[in-house]
Amino acid sequence: MTIDVKTAGSSGKRARSKAANRRAILDAGRRVFARIGFEATTVRDIIRETDLAAGTFYNYFKSKEEVFEAIAEDSTQHFRDLLKDVRATARTAHDYMHDAYYAYFSFIASENRQALSEGAPHMALIGVRVDTPEMSAVAAEIRSDLERILAADTSSSIDIEYLTAAAIGVAREMGEIMLLRRPVDVEGATDFAARMLMAGVKELAAK
What we know:
Layout: H1 5-36, H2 43-48, H3 54-58, H4 64-89, H5 93-111, H6 113-117, H7 133-152, H8 160-180, H9 186-205
Helix pairs in contact: 1-4, 4-5, 4-7, 5-8, 5-9, 7-8, 8-9
């Protein structure tokens, strides 16, 4: 079998160019959403933030909503990878709570770093919405993690569905407040959230 090196090289170059164009649009979308908000943003605003032509934009996305959804999917997958690392190393419920909160708060601080450095409003937790299939998958993974690790800690009688909802709710609400504070205190938010959740777990396990 003969491989056409020239054709293969051309195909690889096109793939890299397409990936670069898509990334440029998503990065531009992040900046514009952060600067002026989702509602005020237009497709033209996003295009102007890139070096791409309008026709190129529409080769990848039909609307600003699709750009937002793509950013959300990418961001959630990134956090999912971080959570996988937490799962691999946490041995106790406290370790899991602490490390998962630290991963989450660090993640959203990083996601919003450029916007915050430029004095823009943060991006309203872009990428961690609860109404996406990706976030539903993350919630299911967290629930499974909590079931496993609490069973090992002899706390298996706790309502895992409620606990999962509480853990995610605390992360979302505290993350919103954390991003509004200066300086953004990842460690402080992590310590507060982990200690509060673990105090609740211990109280429920004692009943």
